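Dear Dr. V.,

Thank you for agreeing to look over these. As mentioned in my earlier message, I'm a first-year student in the group and I'm still getting used to reading structure tokens, so any feedback on how I've presented them would be very welcome. I ran two proteins. I've put each sequence directly above its structure. The first is here:
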Amino acid sequence: MTLDDIAKVQGLASEAVLLEDCEESGLDQEEVRSAMLGRIAEMRDSVRRGLASSQPSRAGMVGWNAKKLWESEDRIGAKLLWRVQAYAMAVNEENARMGRIVAAPTAGSAGTVPGALLGVADHVGIADAQLVGPMILAAGIGKVISQKMYISGSAGGCQAEIGPSAAMAAAAVTELLGGSPAACVHAAAMALMNTIGLVCDPVGGFVEVPCVSRNAFFAVHAVASAQLALAGIESFIPPDEVVSAAAQVGKLIPLSLRETAGAGLAQTPTGLAVAESLRRQAPSPLKGPHV
């Protein structure tokens, strides 16, 4: 199944994705639905823990920002954006603390889908049981994209992680709010196309800066893509061609900007100083307890 195939579905896009998945896996539909509801509960729990904690991350660069945002005043009257950003950061700060999260599709981009989907659902008062279909669609969108491009920062820059996650989230939010299969697919395509070329330049090589805040930004990006699609706006470039373009650009991104900390933010004076400080603090592999 391609993105264009999903767009032509009659009825809910998630139902078509579920049917194909069950045919391939041999699982019963209720098994898949139950498992997905469990994933939603895990996402919900990581959001809850992240919003309540100020514990620093493993490298000490993040860990308090989600809680700080959650407890701050909404100064621009944008409760939805405030909630979506806080949820996304909460999940990624939990990841940075080595807490339990749901990769969606990766750990580094794990906050985008729950940030957007749970954030919108809570904003408009939709129960978790109604998120199962949109989450199944998100998984299907991620699967289709992964068949055309590698989903990892080391393979294709940050666009290969945050791009698919934003596309998954955009499609899920669109279906949640009543969008047609075509609208869901075009939301995914618009989200993905606007991440093309995004590099992966983590400070110190840790999935913390700029990763945590990037999930917050692209969770909002996903919601914006859904809003455009729900208004009838479509991607000018066909969705499957957007995926091919993202795959092509990912291969062109230099190695120094593919999760190696060889350029970009990682090579700024501050980035280098942080990396050196962390290197000095790290225990020597030759001085372990068994030496």
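The second protein is here, in the same arrangement:
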Amino acid sequence: MKLSHLNALRALEATLRNGTFTAAAAELGVTVAAIGQQIRGLEEFLGVKLFERLPQGVRPTAVALAVAARLTEGFGQIEEVLGELRPAAGTDRLKVTMSHFMLDDWLAQRMPAFHQRYPRIEVSYEISVALVDLAKGDIDMAIRFSREAGHDFAAENLHGSAYFPVCTPAVAERFGLSPRTRDLTGVPLFQLYEVTTDPEWIGWSAIIDRHGLRCDSPGPLQQTGGFRVAIGGSGLVICGLTECYNDLLSGNLVAPLGPEYVIQSSYRYRLVWPARRSLNRPMRAFRDWIVAESRRFAAEVPAVLGVPLA
């Protein structure tokens, strides 16, 4: 079977899915002019009009819309076939994007178990706090902390998170911090100034008001270091669970004010990938493994925090 105009069909599929030549060009890494030339060449070859050229942009014709879903499905199957063939070279490859918090503070210590189970899967990472466009480049999946997966994404829900004050055992002892504490006067209070957009995150002022605490100290000190400020023994720091969990387990940090001060996140972690893309073998393996790890983690949390994750 001879299949011609494959690049032009790819341009057509990307334009139908994204809505504009500009968006399709950005996804495929070519110029807008190149997309236009490929589409025009395909129209000449087929003898049909695929787009109406309007002053405000392009509009797909009924002919083009009729094949849009099958084109997307077809290219998804091609990607899946490539993933199935790749192990013949000896290694499956998987690239995942996430924040450095997720990688350094949660995933890294768990990955040896994954590699032991799947020694032929080579995993690489794109570290970013921004929402990396999974339609571009060679990134397969993303781990995101968000309200929802987002349009055009398939997802597996992982675990939620929580926010609460932590410090070293020495700081807790020095200031006599415990669930009975009602006066934070003199205690150095720290919070991040680059915080999550989760609406459940609150700073020290809100915590002090919510619990009726006394605090005649200056306002909270803004920091980027998060739990690293706490580890350094600087004071009482509002941290996220993912950041400080390992140090809570080891005893390097404590949550001295108790479970009453644990604020459940409304966001949660998710493993996401483009909905149009069929999962290849390494993607399926990583999905199944990380979902199981997340459930195991959520089951451990109550023993550490005193409350389950929502």
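From my reading of the second output: The chain has three domains: 6-86, 89-158+267-305, 161-264. The beta strands are 51-54, 57-60, 92-98, 121-127, 141-146, 153-166, 189-192, 221-223, 236-240, 263-274. Does that match how you would interpret it?

Kind regards,
E.
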